[in-house]
Amino acid sequence: MSGDDDILLRAKGLTKHFGEFTAVDGIDFEVRKGECFGFLGPNGAGKSSTMRMVGCVSPVSGGELRLFDLDPATDGPAIRARLGSCPQRDTLDEELTVQENLWIYGRYFGLSRKEVRTRAAELLDFAQLSERAGDKVEPLSGGMKRRLTIARSLINSPEILLLDEPTTGLDPQARHVLWDRLFRLKRSGVTLVLTTHYMDEAEQLCDRLVVMDHGRIVAEGSPRELIAQHSTREVLELRFDVDDHSRHAEQVGGIGERVEVLPDRLLVYAHDGDRASADVHARGVQPLSSLVRRSTLEDVFLTLTGRTLVD
Questions:
Q1: CA within 20 to 30 Å of 303's CA: 10, 113, 189, 199, which one?
Q2: Could you tell me which of 68, 54, 83, 66 has the C-alpha nearest to residue 5?
C-alpha cells in the first residue's frame, strides 16, 4: 500500500471558472510517484484546464491543489522547476537547429553550457534524433517534432512530466514510437501525467486514470478496473445493411447485459460473446457481419456518457 510520501500531486475540490463558465467542477485526484496517470475525456471535458492549473500557469478558482506538498499560488516557481511540460501544440523555434532548441531551453533553467550540451546529447539519443542534431526544425516530420518537444521538456530532469494530448495529429507508426519513449521514461522513474481523448493511448500507457466529462470526474481506476466495473467481459458487434441500426435493437433485446445503438452498428454487451452471437442467429436475425471482441475503454465511456470520446 502506497503511503502519503508517494503522493506527488493531490487535488481536492479543484475548480476552474472562466467568467460564468465552469471548466473544472470540483474534482479530486492523487498522482503517485513513478506512475502514469491519465485524464481521459472528449474535447471540452476540462482536461487541459486541469493541466494548466497543475502546471502552475493558470490560477486555481477553488479547492485545493498541492504538488510536492507546495501550493502553486505561493510556490509556483519552485514547483515549475521540478516539472516538465509538453503542451498540446509544439512551440519549437523552427529557425534553429534541433540541438539549439535544447541548448536555449536548458539555459532558462540555469544549467551551465557544458551541462546543457551533455544533457541535450543524452536526450537526443533518447528521442532517436541524434542524427538530426544539426538540422533545422522546420522540415522535420510531425513525429520528430513531437519527440523533440518531449526531449526539450526533460532538459531540467523533471520529477513530473505533464503531457497534454501527446500524440494528437500523429500517424500510427509515430504514435507507437512515442509510446515506447514514454514507457521508457516511466521505467526510469519519471512520473507521467497525461491528457488524451484516445482510448487506446490511455489503455496502453496509464496505470490509473480518471474519465472526465463536462468538468467532472465520472470514473476512476486502472484501465482493467474500469472495464471490469463499467462494462462486460466481451462485446458483440453487429452490422446490418441499413442506415438506421436502431430498428434492429428490439430484435436482439434481452441478449447480453445491454444493447448500444451506434450509427453504423449495434453493440451487444455480454460476458460470453460467442453465446450472444448464437442467440442472435437463433432468433433468425441475420447481420451482414458479426465480431466478438474484448471490452475496451471506449466501451466504458459509452456506458458512462452514451457518446464517443472524440467530439
A1: 10
A2: 68
pLDDT value at 310 more than 50: no
Question: Strand runs (DSSP E) across 87-147, as ranges?
Answer: none
Distance CA 42, CA 110 (A): 38
Residue 44 has pLDDT above 90, yes or no: no
CATH code of the region 232-294: 3.30.70
Q: In the CATH hierarchy, which top-level class contains the domain 4-227?
A: alpha beta
* Share of residues in the chain with pLDDT > 70 (%): 97
Q: Kindly state the cell numbers that stand for 219.
A: 470514473
Residue whose C-alpha is closest to residue 27's, from 39, 12, 9, 37: 12
- Cα 45 off chain centre by: 13
Task: Give the separation between CA 273 and CA 235, rounded to whole angstroms.
Answer: 6
Nearest to 295 by CA among 279, 276, 271: 271
Task: Count other Cβ atoms within 10 Å, centred on residue 207.
Answer: 15
Predicted confidence band of residue 307 (pLDDT cuts 50, 70, 90): low
* Domain boundaries along the sequence of the chain: 4-227, 232-294
Phi, psi angles (nearest 5°) of residue 138:
-50, -45
Query: Amino acid identity of 162?
Result: L
Q: Write down the pLDDT at residue 264.
A: 87
